[in-house]
## 1
Amino acid sequence: MTEPLLTLRDLTKHFPSGAGKVVQAVDGVNLDVYEGETLGLVGESGCGKSTTAHLIVGLHQASRGKVIFAGEDVAALSGRARQSIRHQMQYIFQDPNDSLDPRMRVRSIIGEGLVARGGMSRAERDALIREMLEKVGLPSDAMERFPHEFSGGQRQRIGIARALVLRPRLVVADEPISALDVSVQSQILNLMGDLRRELGLTYVFVAHNLAAVGYVSDRIAVMYLGRVVEIGETADILNTPRHPYTQALLSAIPDPDIGAAKKARIVLQGDIPSPIDPPSGCRFRTRCPMAQQICSEQVPMLGSHTSQDRRAHQTACHFAGAMSWAP
Amino acid sequence: MSERSDTAWRPELFPRFLIRAFLGQNVLIRIGGVMLVALLALALGGPFVIPHGPTDMVAMSLQPPSAANLLGTDLLGRDVLARTLDAARTSLTVAFCAMALSLMAGAAWGMIAGYNVGSVDLVLMRVLDVLQAFPPLLLAVALVAMLGTSTPNLVFTMSILFVPQFARIARSATLLLRRRQFVLAAEVLGVSPLRNLLTHVLPNISTPLIIESTSVITAALLTESALSFLGMGIQPPTPTWGGMIAESTSVMTRAPWLVLAPGSAIILVVLAFLLLGDGLRDKFDPKVSG
């Protein structure tokens, strides 16, 4: 079995929050991402998915646990080795209105990583930038223009070009379409898919929109309050979800077919609890329709009932699959 | 060189920004700008028109304004107009140099503090608190007394005085930018913190700093006048506005023009800078202009 490209082991991020309290933004996340696949990371606001994405590329330092990229513990590296690994992991930001410096020309924006990496003449950089612009579907005269001269979708294309011009192996996309008009969302998703096939990329795709994640992902990990509660192949997650939270999420997707029979809707009670003082045991138990005594006493571990395969469908629930629900 | 050349030239920075500001509809900017240009023209061109030098003794002492000496003469019979205009160059140069030095130091100080939230920020800002705990003029007098009276020392002292103002503005603006995605993006791209500060943070905090520099140059002008008045600024016979007032206090009732000329010059220049600063703030600070 091939080794994963990216492995997160017990990855934890606690932010200090005054009066000695900590916000447990991410708590013991274990994930494997394999070369060439797209892993979708979904969950509601505040579940820690963006923090996880930041931890992967080093925008935050982990409180505990490891980020292992291509067999190397990223935190243990320093100097040039770390720079080199950083250039192999790139990030696509959520809001293209905020992620491009308004005072820079597109040439400088896309070329910034190349300049930082060094070792290239200006002409070589320009050639790469021009090639990248073409790949993301922008005219080459875009190089001399400023970000405000482009539409939202075009700006996100610039953001994608900036990440990919370094030819990374892993791209972490943090809600890359949620700030865009619905009409251009699918264009950007398709572009990202095309570029993945063309350049052999691996994606970690963070989103709160299950429909979009289902469209692009090979596998999906569902997060709740800083933990992964369920992970598996996209088809398994969408068709036979076993965790009650995943089932609730799926039941909330509106059905575009008006004529179809109204599906059962699982409506969760209450709000997501505070990550400063999360529930004991299973973090979902306060809103779970099937919570029992054991749920407050024991933390359910991610596991599969049928397989030892690390890529198998796994659920962190004491009663995984006990409640049947099908979309 | 080629490393810098693709980011160094940004046409939307200063020149066009200033030209647009001048031609804009803002009345304060226009009045302040016109006053400033006129005063600068007087300061630079005046000495060529006036037939007397600032230290020439041209007539009897304490002569009232006349055709030969438009603003009269002082205690030593020197032409007050010539001295006032010559002092403008000295005073404005000193004030501008002090402002520029403290702008550079303060911007660097504030950006480093704002970028490294945590212990670095804490230490840097506490140092500024200590600096600001002293009354500014007292601190200036103490520093000049320690360093000795000379023009470079005067500029250096005044520039230290105004570092905290610039540093605080730079820090708060940097704190906001630190959360912006394009600054994070540069970090992911492997851009070094120093380069990130210079290419992304500095250009985007320049507007509030430029606005602040108009009020700092005003304060520097007044501080220089005050120090010269106290005899700790620029030494005679070089004329400065504060020094001219100091020389004339004993004969103020007999020859009021000696005090009125440099005093009005200070007021006019300060007013011009304040109007310009207020106008720029109205135009560029969304918190004020709404």
## 2
Amino acid sequence: MAKKNNVCVEPQEEKKKKRGSKAVKATIITLAFGLLASTVAGLSVALYYSNRTLQTHESYQRQMDAVYFKAYYDLIDGANDMGVTLRKIGVSNTPSMQQSMLYEVWSAAELAENSLGVFEAASDGLVKAQKFVNQLGDYAHALALRISDGEALTEEEKATLAKLGDVAQAYLRALERLKESVDEGKLFVGEGGALDGVEDAFSEFAEPSFAYPEMIYDGPFSDALENRAPKGLGGEEISEERGKELVAKMFECSDIAYLGEGEGDIPTLNFSFEEEGANAFVQLAKRGGALVSYNRGYADDALPSATEEAGASCQRAALEFASKMGFEDMQVVWSSSADGECVINLAPVRDGVILYPDLVKIKVRENGSVVTGADASHYALNHAERTLPAPALSEAEAAKALSVPADSEGKLSLIPLRGTREYLAYEFECHVGDATYYVYVDAATGKEINILYVLDDSRMGARTV
Amino acid sequence: MKAKTGIFKTLAVCALVVCVLAALTCAVFAPERDGVAEAAVLKQGSTGALVKTLQTKLINWGYMTGKADGIFGSKTKAGVIKFQKRNGLTADGIVGTKTAQALGMSLGGSSNSGGGSSSTDLNLLSRVVYGEARGEPYTGQVAVAAVVLNRVKSSSFPNTVAGVVYQAGAFDCVSDGQINMSPSQSCINAARDALNGWDPTYGCLYYYNPRTATNKWMLSRTIKLKIGNHSFC
């Protein structure tokens, strides 16, 4: 019986087991299908998005390529125009014609300069290529301005311009080298792109085969401005100890740290000390030990704006500070205020003439009129005993050059122009509507030589441009 | 049992794979966020340079005592409420646009509507300073701004601030996007000093961090001044 029972029971259990395993199998299959389906769905979503990202990436890359291609083609245009116009000037003999072509050269050089500026300048060749084209444009501009004074080009200037034509040729050669890879259909951006070849293409400029003339002329990029010796500094070189003594006397401070020398255009000894919890940085001229720069940082806070009366006491503080530092006979020529600090510009006055090239700037915290900075680099670079010419024109004669009536007396001033020369001029303040202008009339010729416009700006303070 | 364990293992692995795939998909394709989110409001719990500016103003104007620590706590909140009450603002202790305006603060990076080229240059320059030298001493920050301006003046570089800043490869903060962060007040001050003529480097055109710089051409240049972590040349 037992056996029978056993025999009877077994099939039922097996059936149950079979049913059970079928259910498990079904579940597993369903789950597996589910998993497969979600994996496929997930992958499709991933694929879709990766494709979309790739497309966006490619679109950005094409846009970047467009920027480089535009710069490349503009550079070719600029270099071509420079070269051709420089040649034409060589055969022209009429000042007005020469002037118009010099302006064309200036404009072509600007185009080339802007286009070249798009490319990375991490090699001597590219940096010099930029320098040449900037100077070329600047030189052409300076000559064009001079022609407006009625002088034609000299033979020497013509020869310099002809030499500069070689610079334009060198540009075209460099671009020719790049052209090969562009013609092959290479893009600029991406691995092995034409961008990799830019440095090589311009390597000729590092040690040019053409004769590049030294460019001394009246312009901001003139070689005369490089490595100029500071005129306002004299005396013996000072030692670290002497420097510390001077700083202690100037700022009535102790614990002065020596930070080494600065070997820029103005050689300095650098010091720092703590002042009201902030770090103050002082630079003294290595020759003579005069104060060249002082600046104090703040913690990350904006200072409260000051009242109107603050202006006057800030100016007093600035003048006192200047006198203490040894800058005598200074007069406030400009002051501007922003974010709770004002910058007072002081200039020395000699025989009634304001000497703008020798500007000293003093920064004063309006809250409490505390001097927090000074910059005497212009003074260090330009200050010298000058023999000022007597003005050829009276103030009334100079005022005839103005197109709008002046609201102030003409002040005799010495002004720096185009970075290289100083002119004796009458300064007139004029108003048109709300706008304020300063017009400078040459005291020798009666011509306007500069016009400044006062731009009032909440973040920078009032400035002239 | 062994077979079942095997199946469950397979299932578990499949599930894991799907999860990982899903997570990866999300991670890879989630919209990229900018490194910085602008604080639209300052409230209790906020921290940073803007809070410090707020606190300094409140302390200077007598609405709060203590130190400006850059953490917006209950004391700062009380100060803000006091300020709001006295100035006819909703006294909720939260610095939104109106309270910020009354305080003479700007909460956003580009909300200043003041036009004019100098303001634009100041903005761009202070962003460069923040992106390149926010950890440097104040003079180091002025020096970085001055290098940008020295390049503008130099014939060997583009002739505008934007031209110099955005020249390819010129500044790391442009390549890594840090230039798009909001500058701190210290960096704005430093940029303004440089625009006003301060230049501790007296004409330098380059700077680098000797610990991280790799460019041989750069490293070959004569160093003229060292401030903080930067060598100027």
## 3
Amino acid sequence: MDFALLLEKSILILILTAITLGIATYLTYGERKVAAFLQDRLGPNRAGIFGILQPIADAGKMFFKEELIPKNAEKWLFILGPGLAMITACITSAVIPWGSHLELFGRTIQLQVADVDIGILYIMGIVSVGVYGILIGGWASNNKYSLYGAVRASSQMISYELGMGLALIAVIIMSGSLSLREIVEQQSGWGGMQWNIIYQPLGFIIFFTCALAECNRAPFDLPECETELIGGYHTEYSSMKLGFYLFAEYINMFISSAVMTCMYFGGYNFPGMHQIDSQNLLAVLQIAAIFLKISFFIFAFMWIRWTLPRFRYDQLMHLGWKTMIPLAIVNMLLTGGGMLLFGK
Amino acid sequence: MSQLDTRNQDKFVSTETIDGEIATLNLGPTHPATHGVFQNVMKVDGERIISSEPTIGYIHRAFEKLAERRPYNQITPITDRLNYCSSPINNMGWHMTVEKLAGIEVPKKVDYMRVIIMELARIADHLVCNSVIGVDTGALTGFTYVFQEREKIYEMYEEVCGARLTTNIGRIGGFEREFSPVFMVKLKKFLKEFPAKFQEFDNLLTRNRIFMDRVIKAGPISAEKAMSYGFTGPNLRAAGVDYDVRVMNPYSSYGDFDFIIPVGQDGDTYDRFIVRQEEIRQSLGIIRQALDGMPEGKHYADVPSFYLPPKEEVFRSMEALIYHFKIIMGETPIPAGEVYHAVEGANGELGYYLISDGGRTPYRLHFRRPCFIYYQAYPEMVKGAMLSDAILTMSSMNVIAGELDA
């Protein structure tokens, strides 16, 4: 391992972390603006032009709020909960390929922090750890509503991870690789339009639904539904610890959209990409393409949140176990059969 | 908590639990979903409610007792604060009760004006209730759509009486002033634009699969049960009984109008929602008919001992001055007697039982508040339901804290 590679990766990690946090911050603003747009309101418009500084004001407020730890809470676990949620949310982005590669200073810089060949497995693993943040936080608060939220979150995430994993297996069968870069590269055919969604429409619908559930977004926002559980697992949290939970949710949303883009919508591939000769220009355009696709999915997440009511707990379980998982299995079998019959 | 646990232990029937572990959950009094101050101490087995023990009286303001110390015209502001989502109906119900006791005949025009205001109030109230059902299921957007329309209704109140929420609208014997031209313009604009906006809200929820799954069979009550509890209004009609005070016992010339009473089937949250949706449409029809058939005449009855004379008159004529003085001091002549008058409030039969001994204040006044009656059935309706259903049941019954506790 040479020093330059270390430096290159460190810079990439720094940039990526900054971007992830920045995006999460601005997603709060985006959410409020989208909500306002859908609800015929104005949304935040006081801080800066179009309220563009609102997230900074919000974050500042979060930092300076009084930090309250309930007397009967399990102190260390109470602190651990949001930390865990935040860490797991942040480290998932390591395996997402943001573009092919840049050629700078005579080096080939891969636009991916770690091209591990078990990329998807890594993401699924980290995401399943993410639920501990919510579970621990909800339990440690020593509040019944928080506990309800935590229990709901854990059971919901476990059920929907199964469907999600099964939907992904179909894609993996097709690509024969667990590496995200490999999967994305395989979708570059047909002038950059050979996206997996063409082969896997059902798989995508299952994955999208499960991703909504994984991020605790409406219509699956049972863990925190304010009208029943008053915020659920984060009822007792205040100041930046609450901020961490909220941030983690937005980062998760961003990462889910990125994974969805990579798995089904061709990642950084875009039509007409093969006509571009300059590698650096291509890389930049690829980054733009993937972010455009991610933004679209994030908008879809928000759109759904502000349109649909939420499920009831038992209905959620029914949907997960009786609809999503069987469908995912059928999809997996169909894909497997298709691969067996027609080959690649 | 342990005190609550041991209280009324025999009341809690703990059958069919999953693992025998029952928790106590304190829902309220400051729970955001209760839309007011209600407390429910619930025994829950996981998400399932085994029993619920409501506590009422958090905002009891002793209105019935207060009314015994107030002259008749000063009781109107008290009625504002019963069901504060539709104050005008409460106000006019009270005015009609006093008119009934004093034997005052109001001109037809006053009846029609009252009908318009009361139906506007009914629309406003139903909009709040239905959009809040949406909010409680997690669909926040419909709420913002219809609240803009409710705002327009409030602007119309403002045009008639100057107030928005606690309206104190009208007077005993009629209206304080004629409907202004601005009001008429606003009303006509509302009648023209509201149906489309309302349809938008309807499209968002009524046939939404998730919404239907959530509200169908949530908090049902049978017609028999509902009647034995004394349910009235949309909640009784949702259970399938076509009882409506406007038709059964017409007041304020409701007999002149042509409208349908929607009835439901199962008495669940969805039926209550649908009945209210349809009633909004019917109310619009009533307003249109009242507007078209508005008779000529004065906007007040000729009862100088109840209806304040115009201020210029007070300064010029002695008679007016005397009446003015007497009304303000609460020295209005009223016969001794006993009278019950009920109006179809936005969420049920709102009755006023008034006993007068001929003095300056009522001897006794009792409000028959529909919410008080609905809330008694609440523990039974949520028994065995999920926690989410319990929240929906409460919002769909439209229990308003101010009316419940009076």
## 4
Amino acid sequence: MDMIKYTLTRLGYMIVTLWIIVTATFFLMHSLPGTPLQNEEKLPPLIRDQIMETYGLNDPLPVQYMNFLGRLVQGDLGKSLTYDGRSVTEMLLEGFQASSFIGMQALVFGVVVGLFLGVAAALRHGGLLDNIATIVAVAGVSIPSFVMAGLLSYWVGVKWQLLPTALWGTYEHTILPSLSLSFFVIAQMSRYIRTEMVEVLDQDYMKTAKAKGLGRQAIIFRHALRNALIPAVTVLGPLAVNIITGSLVVETIFAIPGIGEFFVQSIQVNDYTLIMGVTIFYAVLILVTIFVVDILYGIIDPRIRLAGARE
Amino acid sequence: MSKLLDVRDLHVSFTTYNGEVKAVRGVNFYVNKGETVAIVGESGCGKSVTSQTIMRLIPQPPGIIRHGEIHFADRDLVKVSDKQMEKIRGSELAMIFQDPMTSLNPTMTVGRQITESLIKHQKLGSSKARQKAIELLRMVGIPSPESRAKQYPHQFSGGMRQRAMIAIALSCRPKLLIADEPTTALDVTIQAQIIDLMKRLQEKFGTSIILITHDLGVVADIADRVVVMYAGIVVETGTLHEVFFNPHHPYTWGLMASMPRLDLHHEQELLPISGSPPDLISPPKGCPFAARCRHAMKVCTEYMPEMTDLSSTHQVACWLEHPMAPKANKHTGRNGGEADE
């Protein structure tokens, strides 16, 4: 019951937040100089006017804003002004399919490997495995993903000919991009889990668990890991959004038709509808992720659940 | 009475960067069935290390059991395998800790933390175990145990948490309960309740208890016998009556004199034991208390005193018991040292 109320309240806040983001972006975007038209000077004024009229760009800004909101409520993001009049929704979904697949794969792989590495490092705290995990973590954080992408593409793709170097189509095409994105996730997760795990293993309730006669596995997985997950979940949220929305660089290196390029392109050419589409998409994704992370917190840590319900 | 636990010549050390800390240096004591033995002594005297060694909860490394035997129900706990020890822990041997605020897992319901050992040791199904857990919570005096079992530790007060800890510890009817300063972190009124609860449950189940504390008031309330430890060795042991009313070791005199008492004049000052315990990396070769002892003789700093039998239950390790030692000062410590200055 508390949970439903909490969820509904949070949903309300999310809608308000989204509205603020949309409004701010809308007016900022229109304050940029220029129009979506290319070669504007060469167009006869009549044609230029007609185009502007068609897209409703001659209306006063508040009217355009209201029109835009009206369509948005109906779920219509409009048509792209530069990509041959394609529907923005369609473009985003298409691009997101590729980006999210690669991202999710990287995320799942990275979290699982990072978790194991972190736990193993904490248990062998100070030993060989701990040192290896440290090296992996430092390398994963400090080597940029495009270097990783380049190396993987060269060695695995060109030298050993194991996987395709680039392009999109079969499952094999997704492996290298996911791998190059996952290193950062592995690094982050393993560090957070290790640090927290070392701390948790030192807590009094670990002694209680041991005094109950529980086996090593029950102690580590049932008692320690859950308590060690809390900070890791915090970083997981923003990390997930970044990775799922795709890395422009990695997508460019592997020539993947992802969402990454829209982020950059749309602003350069003043593609108003695409800018708004990308912004809304990104904002919704972040809001939902933050919400999911908060729910996860509650599942992992009952103390947070209670505090949230009281709000 | 038969001995349930018999600790013989136990030596436990910890390796540190500065050298080997000899935390426990030859401890002997026993616990009979159904009896409460209190181990008293100041911080760092080795009482907690001794109890955790019995449970085999000392992290190894850095801890090492150098020597000794711990006989418990026909086994030597120093020698049993880790797997066997897991079976003994929580079922035959149980422990409760000092700080109930941190001794319960914050992300697991209290009920689940109780059922865990029931499922592990008594092989109960989960619904049976849950019923048993509720029963246990009721037994330790937690109101509306059905709903409490579903709650998390942070929804419990300190006293309630310690009650829950007791429920966990007693869930499988252990033969021996080790309580490591169970009341130190609690309010005085709650302390009394917890001690009463332990006494009541002991009567009901016949559990033996090792109570580790530096609170002599608690000792007087619950203990049958007392073991006084200092710097890793047992300096005096005897029945509650013997140790409280006829203490023989100057350290025990000091402990008694530093305890506030209602039957003394309130003008009378409490006498602290001045100085601090010796460094256990290189412990003195003689009596460890010699440096702080007002009655120390030359022999005390040179040779470790042997255990002297005063009665079948009362032993003391002090050179003052030697026939050649001066006897005059013996009673000076007992009543707060008024004959002294």
